[in-house]
Design a protein that fits this description.
The complex is a heterodimer.
Chain A: E1 11-14, H1 18-30, E2 37-40, H2 43-54, E3 62-66, H3 74-83, E4 92-96, H4 103-110, E5 114-117, H5 122-139
Parallel strand pairs in A: 1-2, 1-3, 3-4, 4-5
Chain B: H1 13-43, H2 47-95, H3 110-141, E1 145-149, E2 157-160, H4 172-175, H5 187-197, E3 205-215, E4 221-232, E5 238-247, H6 249-269, E6 275-280, E7 286-289, H7 291-297, H8 301-304, H9 315-329, E8 335-343, E9 349-360, E10 366-375, H10 377-453, H11 460-491, E11 497-500, H12 501-511, H13 513-519, E12 522-525, E13 531-534, H14 536-553, E14 561-569, E15 572-579, H15 611-621, E16 625-630, E17 636-643
Parallel strand pairs in B: 12-14
Antiparallel strand pairs in B: 1-2, 1-5, 3-4, 4-5, 6-7, 6-10, 8-9, 9-10, 11-13, 14-15, 15-17, 16-17
Helix pairs in contact in B: 1-2, 2-3, 10-11, 11-15, 12-14, 14-15
The chains are: A alpha/beta, B alpha+beta.
């Protein structure tokens, strides 16, 4: 995949749990995922990214957003994103510990694009990373 | 020929008679001429000449006399004898009963007058006879039967009119059959009838009227009223006994019916259930009272009759009652009902329900009042009692209601507690899924990294430790998942809908396909067409766990066998899953469905102890149940049972 005329699309991972964060990154690494991955460790940091995109920085091609975040909740981040006139088109994938998560429904109400249940096993982490890659490049190519 | 009564009318002896008279006259003359003859013999001619002259005179005289006699005879026959004969013949015919016959003799002479008188007599007789016939006819047409008896033993019948036909007889059945009148009389009435005829009556006639029964020709009995008249002559002998019989059967029947009806009405009136009275419309007096009314009011019948009902009415009810009475008398109403009080003779108050009805005569004139009076004192007392009991009941009900409300309050409290417990459970589930899974992900992820990337640097024991960490993590992951499934089964909304069983069984087998293939389990799916009203996901989870269980516990049999079937029997639809595995002791049959209950070590049979609890919970939530039959080493059968709809 070589697109020299555009900066390679990046991915924003919003995750507070250090181990989950580390394992997710390692899983992408295992999948030889070469794109840039920005990391926000809480809701505030995620919102700060939005200001940077407003200021002219290139927004990510996809956002992986944990629901439970310190300071500003993942749902609040999602709400602000989806209310933003431009950034609301950025696909957002929720990260959740369980399908049971009641916040998932709220997330869908707010306009989330998809969700991924965080797997217990690392092998599955790697599978999920592969799915995200697929999603990104094949299924969800953004309109030009 | 009664000719001898009329000698002058004789036909043949009239000329004979005339001849004899003439000859006598002639002889007389001859005898008177004899002395002259002697004298003449002496004085004039010879004897023979004179004798010849006398004989000649005699011959002439005889001839003249014969001629005169013939003329006389002819005259008499014309004027007298012929008319007399006609009259005789006519009178004879009349005497023979031909009253229409007339003599037709005219003339002003005696014979003519006699003839005319005879004709008038015949006319009168004929007229009278016609009248008699007419009267007789009238009598015979009359329903009254006229009878005349002969005064002999048993009253033989002399005459009887045609009216007996109404009893099926002809008159000769009485007069010419040799039967006596008494034979027709009802044996029970005979003594009375005969007794009335025996006594000697003074005077020259007697009348007696009596009723008795006579036998009809058809064997039935007819009531007759007999008006008997007996006439005696001056010497005390019975001259004539006549009777007029009138059939009064209908009258007697009507009379009896009326008597019966009256008796019935009287019996009805005297029924001991309800007081009844007839009272005067004019002055409010009792005219008739029955025994029950006397009983109600405590008076003797004689005491009540003649007194007014006002006298024994409670003072407070008099005005109302009299108003109603006045309205009825004025014709503004036909009757009335009222609950009123009477005063018993002993002074106590009698509560009564009274109904009054006006009785009018044929001209619509108010005759009297019919009253029924029901003593309801006892009922009133009972009503009071019922009221009291009802009051008690109401109080009891209120107490019950209070108790109920208290209970409901407690139910609400308990429900609230339950709701809170549920909430806590949910919160727990939530934290399990979030907080327990997060560290587990860490342990799993890093132990895998350790195993994969650092294995060469670990010695044998280190690698064993890591492997055990990995296995523990895996088991804990399963445990958490099962636990979540269980709590979801408990909380989720069950939506029951018609579902075909077989596809769900196939789906469950599909889920276990890996294990089935690996262990070489022989599966026999015998489920035919059966539909159940169940929550699809609930049944799917239950089947998956049962099949998984059967596969798991039969793995050491050779070959492992799992059989699944469905049947409907004894009012329930059941799905069964049978294996030929290790089975279990039935003393644990209840324990196996409890959560975290295990009969085997984890090392022997992996599992969380949640599976069968999940099956039981699912069955329970779908109004069904699960049960098991087994024995150690004998395999096991699990039944999922639902009521037939």
């Amino acid at each position: 995949m070589n697109l020299p005329s555009f900066p390679a699309p990046s991915l924003l991972l919003v995750e507070d749990n250090p181990m989950d964060l580390d394992l997710t990154l390692r899983a992408f690494e295992r999948k030889r995922f070469s794109n840039r991955i920005d990391v926000a460790r809480d809701g505030e940091e995620a919102l700060a990214f939005m200001e940077r995109w407003d200021a002219g920085e290139a927004p990510p091609a996809v956002i992986l957003l944990d629901i439970n975040l310190p300071k500003v909740n993942g749902l609040e981040v999602l709400r602000q994103l989806k209310e933003h006139p431009r950034h609301r088109r950025i696909p957002v994938v929720m990260l959740t510990s369980s399908r049971e998560d009641r916040d998932l429904l709220a997330a869908y109400d707010l306009g989330v694009n998809s969700y991924i249940e965080k797997p217990v096993s690392f092998d599955k982490f790697i599978d999920v990373a592969g799915q995200i890659e697929l999603y990104w490049y094949v299924l969800n190519e953004r309109p030009r | 020929m009664n000719g001898r009564w009329l000698p002058l009318a004789g036909r043949h002896w009239v000329p004979l008679f005339l001849m004899v008279v003439f000859l006598l006259m002639l002889g007389l003359r001859y005898v008177m001429q004899l002395p002259e003859l002697g004298e003449e013999v002496a004085g004039q001619g010879t004897l023979s000449e004179r004798r010849a002259a006398v004989l000649a005179d005699l011959s002439r005289d005889v001839l003249l006399a014969l001629l005169a006699a013939a003329l006389l005879w002819a005259f008499l026959d014309t004027v007298w004898f012929r008319r007399a004969r006609r009259m005789v013949a006519a009178v004879e015919d009349m005497g023979a009963g031909q009253l229409e016959r007339r003599t037709g003799v005219g003339g002003a002479d005696e014979l003519g007058l006699i003839g005319q008188a005879v004709d008038r007599m015949a006319e009168r007789l004929q007229h009278n006879q016609q009248r008699l016939l007419y009267m007789n006819n009238l009598i015979n047409r009359s329903p009254a039967v006229v009878v005349e008896w002969h005064m002999g033993a048993g009253w033989p019948v002399l005459r009887i009119s045609d009216g007996v036909s109404q009893w099926g007889y002809v008159p000769t059945d009485f007069t010419a059959s040799g039967r006596m009148y008494r034979d027709f009389i009802h044996p029970d009435d005979l003594d009375g009838v005969m007794a009335s005829r025996e006594p000697c009556f003074s005077g020259d006639e007697a009348h007696a009227t009596q009723a008795y029964r006579i036998r009809r020709a058809d064997g039935g009995w007819a009531w007759v009223e007999d008006r008997t008249r007996i006439e005696w002559d001056g010497q005390g002998a019975v001259m004539r006994a006549t009777g007029i019989l009138l059939d009064i059967t209908d009258r007697r029947m009507a009379e009896r019916a009326r008597q019966e009806r009256e008796a019935l009405v009287r019996r009805f009136f005297e029924l001991p259930f309800i007081g009844m009275a007839i009272s005067s419309a004019a002055d409010k007096r009792w005219l008739e009272v029955n025994g029950r009314l006397c009983e109600i009011l405590g008076y003797e019948r004689e005491e009540l009759l003649g007194r007014t009902w006002v006298e024994m009415t409670h003072p407070d009810d008099v005005a109302t009652n009299v108003d109603l009475f006045d309205e009825l008398v004025a014709g503004r109403r036909d009757g009335y009902q009222m609950d009123k009080r009477f005063i018993h003779r002993n002074g106590t108050v009698v509560h009564a329900e009274m109904a009054v009805r006006a009785v009018h005569d044929a001209h619509g004139q108010l005759e009297h009042l019919l009253t029924t009076i029901q003593d309801v004192t006892e009922r009133q007392r009972n009503l009071a009692l019922v009221e009291e009991r009802s009051q008690q009941l109401r109080q009891a009900e209120e107490r019950l209601l209070e108790a109920n409300q208290a209970l409901e309050r407690r139910v609400v409290e308990r429900t609230e507690q339950l709701r809170r417990a549920n909430q806590e459970l949910e919160a727990f589930t939530y934290s399990v899924s979030h907080d327990l899974k997060a560290p587990l992900r860490g342990i799993d992820g890093y132990s895998q990294l350790l195993q994969e990337e650092y294995a060469p640097r670990l010695d044998e024991e280190g690698r064993l430790f890591v492997a055990r960490i990995r296995r523990s993590v895996e088991q804990m992951g399963c445990l958490i998942e099962d636990l979540l499934d269980y709590s979801r089964m408990e909380r989720r909304q069950m939506t029951c809908q018609d579902a075909e069983v077989r596809p769900l069984v196939e789906q469950a087998l599909e889920a276990c396909a890996g294990d089935i293939e690996r262990l070489g389990t022989r599966v026999d799916n015998r489920v035919g067409a059966m539909r159940l009203s169940v929550d699809r996901e609930g049944l799917a989870v239950a089947l998956r766990n049962l099949v998984g269980n059967a596969v798991k516990f039969s793995r050491d049999s050779t070959p492992p066998r799992v059989e699944i079937g469905a049947e409907e029997a004894d009012g329930c639809r059941r799905i069964w899953v049978r294996d030929n595995g290790i089975g279990f002791d039935m003393k644990y049959c209840d324990r196996i469905f409890g959560i975290f209950q295990r009969l085997h070590r984890v090392e022997d049979y992996a599992g969380t102890g949640v599976g069968l609890a999940l099956v039981a919970k699912a069955a329970e939530r779908m109004n069904g149940r699960v049960r098991a039959e087994s024995a150690p080493g004998q395999g096991a059968v699990f039944y999922l049972e639902f009521p037939s709809s």
